[in-house]
Design brief:
The structure is a single chain. The protein contains 22 helices and no strands. With 431 residues, the protein is mainly α. The longest helix is centred in the middle third of the chain and has 34 residues, at 264-297. The protein starts with a helix and ends in a 5-residue tail after the last helix.
Length: 431
């Protein structure tokens, strides 16, 4: 490890510690590395431009962002919530189940945990509180926990990022997220049921069966979006990036044509907000790619692979150690940084140990999503606090049981690779 790289690492942590956005921290640190190493400073710009220019799959990120924002601005979210109330609202802890089910469905459209929490999550939190059966902190905690499912069930922005750094198929990664996402939803619903039973939360009045067909018909066009996306990708008609464009167009057609709930002024605001969010993510991605170039130059992944091979560590022990590392980093860093900066260091080691990289990616992405609700700096906790005004302390206290439920799901995914790989193998994956 050279002096230049040590200076680079010190700069990253020092700048991040004083509150500098992680993208800018990486850019400044990379520039310092090149300066100390005596290299041409223009290499930073060259790597940034070349990596993004070659990264066709990155176009899926802003397209999924705008699709989610269009659905939040229109009445798509409300129609989905009404459908979820009709399906699971009749059980004990019904509105909590509605919250989780709505995240499962919405995740098949947005691919973003933040979009889920800030959009449909805000609505369902208010609905839970209005019943008078749930505290504000509990409603916010269920919303934050269920939003972690968003980037697991396809489409998934973090899966796109992992595909970029690992050269794995986005299609197979999307398929590998289906069962893990459902497992996470099941664990959260089970915990919600147990808490509701212990607190003796009353059962909600069921939706009359005669209203069910009408509710389903009104929600049906929105429910078809995941079907259209996945059938296009796995039927060979579209690439994942093209599917993201179709998702954005379909959301726009629903909001402006069928539901007529998105006006021109609101659409302008959606485009501006989406551009800002995409730019923020783009800065982090671009600067992380520069940093990854430096890491590759220093041969850090190869050094780690050799070290792990000498330790003769088993694949399971490596995965468990990685889980502990990512969970710890999740308390301090956002998921994008973990996926783009930390995981490239360990992918070669996972490959050497014979760990399937699709399975490895799913486990690590699930782990990074759990980090979004891990105190003290879980991003989703702050997002829910910002959009609802519910005190952060109340959210953290109530989110801990759901954090435990998600950790159980993570252990199951780590120990049993077939949970992730069953569906991809059915569609021809041979890993």
């Amino acid at each position: 490890m050279s002096l230049a790289f040590i200076v680079c690492l010190v700069a990253v942590f020092a700048l991040a510690a004083i509150g500098t956005p992680i993208g800018y921290s990486l850019l400044v640190a990379a520039t310092l590395y090149l300066a100390v190493d005596g290299a041409d400073l223009a290499l930073a710009a060259e790597q940034l431009i070349q990596s993004i220019y070659d990264g066709y799959t990155l176009l899926a990120v802003p397209l999924f962002i705008i699709a989610a924002n269009i659905m939040n601005a229109g009445t798509v979210s409300e129609r989905l919530l009404t459908f979820c109330v009709a399906v699971v609202g009749r059980f004990r802890g019904g509105m909590g189940h509605v919250n989780i089910l709505s995240s499962l469905i919405f995740s098949g459209m947005s691919g973003s945990a933040v979009a889920d929490a800030a959009g449909i999550g805000k609505i369902i939190t208010e609905m839970m509180v209005k019943t008078g059966h749930y505290s504000r902190g509990y409603a916010a905690a269920v919303t934050a926990a269920s939003a972690t499912i968003g980037p697991i069930i396809p489409p998934s922005i973090p899966m796109v990022m992992y595909a970029l750094i690992s050269n794995q198929s986005i299609g197979y990664l999307f398929l590998a997220g289906i069962l893990p996402g459902l497992l996470m939803g099941f664990m959260l619903m089970s915990m919600n049921y147990v808490i509701s039973w212990r607190r003796d939360i009353p059962v909600e009045a069921p939706t009359p069966l005669r209203d069910a067909p009408g509710i389903t018909i009104r929600a049906f066009p929105a429910l078809m979006m995941p079907v259209i996306l996945l059938s296009g990708i796995y039927g060979g008609a579209t690439t994942p990036t093209e599917a993201a464009a179709i998702a954005a167009l379909y959301a726009l057609m629903l909001a402006t044509g069928l539901y007529r709930s998105l006006r021109l002024r609101e659409f302008y605001r959606v485009v501006v907000d989406s551009a800002r969010q995409a730019a923020t993510v783009g800065i982090v991605i671009g600067c992380a790619l520069i940093f990854n170039y430096i890491v590759a130059t220093e041969r850090i992944p190869q050094m780690l692979s050799t070290y792990m091979a000498d330790l003769d560590i088993s694949p399971l022990m490596f995965l468990l150690a990685m889980n502990l590392l990512i969970l710890g980093l999740g308390c301090l860093l956002d998921a994008t940084t973990i996926i783009l900066v930390v995981l490239p260091l360990f992918i070669p080691t996972a490959n050497v140990l014979g760990i399937d990289l699709i399975h490895f990616g799913v486990v690590m992405v699930v782990n990074a999503m759990i980090g979004l609700i891990t105190p003290p700096y879980g991003m989703l906790l702050f997002v829910i606090n910002a959009v609802t005004g519910i005190p952060l302390r109340d959210i953290i206290v109530n989110v801990l049981p759901f954090l435990f439920a998600l950790l159980l799901a993570l252990v199951a995914l780590t120990v049993f690779p077939d949970i992730s790989l069953m569906i991809p193998r059915y569609f021809g994956y041979h890993g």
